[in-house]
Specification:
This protein is mostly helical and 106 residues long. Helix content is 42%, strand content 9%. It contains four helices and two strands, in the order αααββα. The radius of gyration is 17 Å and the shape is globular.
């Protein structure tokens, strides 16, 4: 079995929609290119090509998670239309603290 493939020989998907949304959340610029999304994912230890990021973004657009605008002859800008979800441990902490006065650190 080669790297990045599952037992059936298909490429294993290691980047989730939430990972992509997190890139938009962490970046200072609200509009990113597919290349910038791919670079942002690498900061989180996720490997994806620019073409892979473009395909993922197109699929996410169909689901209403991101939107896009053509910025030039070959440039497309993408932005998130929803926020990433909190992981379950953080969500539990927020819910527990919402009912108390303890708002120091998460």
């Amino acid at each position: 079995m080669s790297q990045g493939r599952d037992d059936a020989g298909r490429f294993a998907e290691n980047v989730t929609d939430q990972d992509v949304l997190k890139v938009f959340d962490y970046d200072d610029d609200p509009v990113l290119t597919a290349a910038e999304v791919a670079d942002g994912l690498r900061r989180f230890g996720k490997e994806i090509t620019r073409e892979g990021a473009r395909k993922r973004l197109a699929r996410m657009e169909e689901q209403g998670l991101v939107d896009r605008k053509k910025l030039g002859a070959r440039a497309v800008g993408w932005w998130a239309t929803v926020a990433p979800e909190l992981d379950s441990a953080t969500e539990e902490t927020v819910e527990r603290r919402r009912e108390s006065d303890d708002w120091t650190e998460l």
